[in-house]
Write a structure and sequence with these properties.
Elements lengths: L1 H12 L9 E3 L1 H11 L6 H10 L3 E5 L2 E5 L10 H9 L2 E5 L2 E5 L5 H11 L4 E6 L3 E6 L2 H15 L1
Antiparallel strand pairs: 1-3, 2-3, 4-5, 5-7, 6-7
Helix pairs in contact: 1-2, 1-3, 4-5, 4-6
């Protein structure tokens, strides 16, 4: 059942209004109701565990909490490109670091995708609420990574 839920939950989280983003306020309640309507009796604990396994994170946008699953917007390109385009406000090199600014509550979402992307330049990430420090091996790699990430913003 869990594998089936892993397939269905991202679709359930997708907004029905194309003008919305791939997040939904109170997604866990909405998801439980939708899954029940589909004949899948999933408990809140099951849904929360599956959301975690799918890499979903709670983010804050416009003062509201919502779940987001990076890279689930159809036709959006690579997961990293999608997340950077949707969640990153600025990218600046600082020595061998890259400092990334996001909306409040969104740094973790971007940090997870950066870690999972296994970019050669990235040694590690530290995420706060709205800021990410990305450690690179050298200032040259930090500048190259900054340029690469900025290209996704254009």
């Amino acid at each position: 059942m869990t594998n089936r839920l892993h397939t269905i939950i991202p679709a359930v989280l997708q907004p029905t209004d194309p003008a919305q983003t791939a997040e939904r306020p109170h997604a866990d309640v909405t998801s439980a109701e939708k899954l029940s309507a589909l004949g899948l009796g999933a408990t809140q604990a099951t849904i929360s565990r599956d959301l975690e396994q799918l890499g979903a994170v709670k983010v804050r946008r416009d003062g509201r909490l919502a779940y987001a699953i990076p890279g689930t917007v159809p036709g959006s390109g690579t997961r990293l490109a999608t997340v950077v385009r949707d969640w990153v406000r600025s990218v600046e090199p600082a020595g061998n670091l890259v400092v990334i600014k996001t909306p409040p509550g969104s740094a973790h979402l971007v940090g997870v995708v950066l870690d999972e992307s296994e970019l050669a330049e990235v040694v590690g990430t530290i995420c706060g609420d709205d800021t990410i420090f990305v450690a690179c091996r050298s200032a040259t790699e930090a500048k190259a990574l900054s340029g690469r990430l900025r290209d996704f913003l254009a």
